[in-house]
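Support request, please re-run this one:
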Amino acid sequence: MSDATVPADLTGISFEKAVAELESIVARLERGDVALDESIAIYERGELLKKHCEQLLSAAENRIEKIRLDRAGKPTGSEPLDGA
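Re-run finished. Output below.
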């Protein structure tokens, strides 16, 4: 998901805030006390939040690196965790 497809109000929102809002949406939908039109709207918002969280997780995974050590156990550099 590129920044061009991220709604303006999600740009820059942290993973933790997105998850909290998503949890709130799920709770409201599970209670079943939301009108049909609002249920559809908040479900769609939940989908956008889910995609945003997936993008943030993917970016974090790409930044994780494995530290390479020499024979003496000293760090010599890093490489992608999955060896890619």
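The first helix runs from residue 15 to 31. Helices lie at 15-31, 36-63.
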